[in-house]
């Protein structure tokens, strides 16, 4: 069961962050070793490359109870596999435009380029993103009631 | 149209006789005059028809027909020839096993638009010039052809074929284009997110998950489809849940993004009349605006926008029209 409310009665979102193995995951690691804090409700999923993330992954995260999904990869030009994140960029641009077109809040999804040396950026991005999702509140427009029910049982 | 039909029949008989082709894929009459379904014919061409209700795109059938012995004769309307090229680009059709005849099209009719005019009890339909003659149980009725065309025909891609071994065309070509194809997309984009959400809820909540849009789409031709996975949660219509509709339609449209030729078959076959082409056109419009004008299937072998990139592409989340950074 997911706890969506903290001890003070405030909304506590669930965030799924897809981080590429080579840059962003190491960036998150650096944020940790540098003692920079970012909210604990960010759940990191490590992927070999940001390009591994299929639009279905993002929708699936929302289905299973995420309130926001962020995708982090190497800076364009720095991809470990040379060109992976260029494809991600096109794909996600189109997907996010489509979500917006269907009336689903654009700010629930985000792509950020975080290198292995940018621990501080990682922490800042995550803090900003969680703050924005707290403003938006619970994900209502892309939720799957069937998944919610099974979580409560 | 009758004249074109005669010429097609004559030419097809010749091709059967000299052994160029062993079968033909065309249309046959369904339960009623306004119901024409694709079918495969032998040399006798029994039941073959071509008229204003033959809107179905035949190019998808060539995927399976490429796998059997012998050559297939296919009839392509101008908009179908784009799908044909796209499938050739994706190596789904064996070009050597297909003989394509580009046929004339003067716009295809939409039975729902005829019904919307208040015509009931239709017994038979005939076309006379630019009029449709309807024989109903309440007597005969005539409607203007230009008023009852399929939506896609009002923003036709053009009357020129982009593929074909030979062409059977009318002397006088009819131009049916009256509107900009992105008109509705632009209107939706101008709405607030809440209005858009309400609009799409109203449309997508009617979806019965019959999969007709997937099955008819020439671009949607994977051997193993993601929607056939029962664990996906979209394999059937969920009661009182909106997610499966959104998920299905986003993923369906995304899978054909950059490959969709805008043939409009998805909207034509939808039994619930959901304007599915508006989802595809959103992708087409975004691709055109962000990555340069692109028409899928215009040429064989062109590289799709989602399998290509440029170093200075727009960043995701950047909304130039809303003042965002590019």
The biggest beta sheet of chain B, please? 6 strands, mixed
On the 0 to 100 scale, the average pLDDT of chain B is 88
DSSP summary: helix tally of chain A: 5
This entry's quaternary arrangement is: heterodimer
- How many domains of chain B, as an integer? 3
The helicity of chain A comes to 40-55%
Q: How many DSSP helices of chain B? A: 10
Query: Strand share of the residues of chain B?
Result: 5-15%
CATH class of chain A: Alpha Beta
Please indicate the percent range of residues of chain A in DSSP E strands (runs of 2 or more): 15-25%
CATH domain topology of chain A? Rossmann fold
The N- and C-terminal alpha carbons of chain B lie at a distance of 50 Å
Provide the structure class of chain A: alpha/beta
Task: Indicate the low-confidence ranges of chain A by residue numbers.
Answer: none
Structural class of chain B: alpha/beta
Helix-strand sequence of chain A: EHEHEHEHH
What is the rounded Rg of chain A? 15 Å
Largest interface: A-B, 38 and 47 residues
- The shape of chain A is globular
What does this structure look like?
The complex is a heterodimer of chains A (153) and B (326). Chain A has 153 residues and is α/β, with parallel strands linked by helices. Chain A has one domain (15-152): Rossmann fold (3-Layer(aba) Sandwich). Chain A contains five helices and four strands. In chain A, β3, α3 and β4 form a beta-alpha-beta unit. The mean pLDDT of chain A is 89. Helices cover 30% and strands 15% of the residues of chain B. Chain B has three domains: 1-107 and 159-177, no CATH class; 111-148; 180-308, no CATH class. In chain B, strands 1, 2, 3, 4, 5 and 9 form a six-stranded mixed sheet that branches. A three-stranded antiparallel sheet of chain B has the order 6-7-8, with no helix packed on it. With 326 residues, chain B is an alpha/beta fold. Chain A binds chain B through residues 55-56, 59, 62-63, 76-77, 83, 86-87, 89-106, 109-111, 141-147, and chain B through 188-189, 193-201, 226, 233, 238, 240-244, 246-247, 250-251, 253-254, 257, 279, 282-283, 286-287, 290-291, 305-311, 313-319.
């Amino acid at each position: 069961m997911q706890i969506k409310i903290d001890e003070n009665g405030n909304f506590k979102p669930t965030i799924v962050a897809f981080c590429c193995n080579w840059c962003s995951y190491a960036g998150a690691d650096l944020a940790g070793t540098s003692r920079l804090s970012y909210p604990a409700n960010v759940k990191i999923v490590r992927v070999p490359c940001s390009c591994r993330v299929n639009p279905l992954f993002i929708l699936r995260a929302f289905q299973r109870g995420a309130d926001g999904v962020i995708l982090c990869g190497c800076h364009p030009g720095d991809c470990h596999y040379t060109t992976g994140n260029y494809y991600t960029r096109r794909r996600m641009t189109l997907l996010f435009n489509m979500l917006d077109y269907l009336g689903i809040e654009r700010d629930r999804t985000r792509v950020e380029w975080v290198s292995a040396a940018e621990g501080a950026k990682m922490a800042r991005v995550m803090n900003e993103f969680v703050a924005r999702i707290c403003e938006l509140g619970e994900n209502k427009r892309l939720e799957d009631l069937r998944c919610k029910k099974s979580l409560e049982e | 149209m009758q004249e074109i039909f005669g010429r097609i029949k004559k030419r097809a008989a010749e091709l059967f006789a000299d052994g160029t082709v062993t079968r033909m894929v065309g249309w046959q009459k369904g339960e009623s005059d306004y119901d024409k379904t694709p079918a495969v014919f032998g040399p006798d061409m029994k039941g073959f028809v071509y008229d204003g209700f033959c809107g179905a795109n035949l190019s998808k059938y060539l995927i399976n027909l490429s796998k059997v012995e012998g050559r297939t004769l296919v009839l392509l309307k101008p908009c179908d020839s784009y799908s044909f090229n796209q499938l050739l680009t994706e190596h789904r059709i064996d070009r050597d096993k297909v003989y394509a005849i580009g046929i004339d099209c003067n716009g295809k009719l939409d039975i729902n638009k005829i019904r919307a005019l208040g015509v009931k009890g239709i017994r038979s339909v005939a076309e006379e010039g630019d009029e449709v003659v309807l024989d109903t149980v309440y007597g005969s009725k005539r409607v203007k052809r230009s008023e009852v065309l399929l939506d896609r025909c009002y923003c036709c891609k053009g009357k020129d074929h982009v593929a074909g071994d030979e062409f059977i065309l009318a002397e006088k070509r009819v131009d049916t284009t009256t509107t900009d194809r992105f008109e509705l997309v632009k209107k939706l984009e101008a709405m607030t997110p809440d209005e858009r959400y309400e609009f799409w809820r109203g449309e997508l909540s009617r979806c019965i998950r019959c999969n007709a849009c997937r099955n008819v789409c020439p671009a949607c031709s994977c051997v193993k489809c993601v929607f056939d996975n029962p664990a996906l949660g979209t394999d059937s219509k969920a009661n009182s849940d909106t997610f499966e509709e959104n998920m299905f339609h986003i993923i369906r449209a995304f899978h054909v993004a950059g490959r969709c030729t805008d043939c409009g078959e998805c909207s034509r076959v939808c039994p619930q009349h959901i304007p599915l082409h508006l989802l595809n056109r959103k992708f087409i419009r975004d691709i055109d605006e962000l990555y340069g004008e692109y028409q899928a299937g215009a040429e064989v072998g062109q590289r799709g926008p989602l399998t290509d990139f440029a170093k200075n592409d727009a960043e995701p989340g950047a909304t130039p029209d809303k003042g965002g950074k590019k």
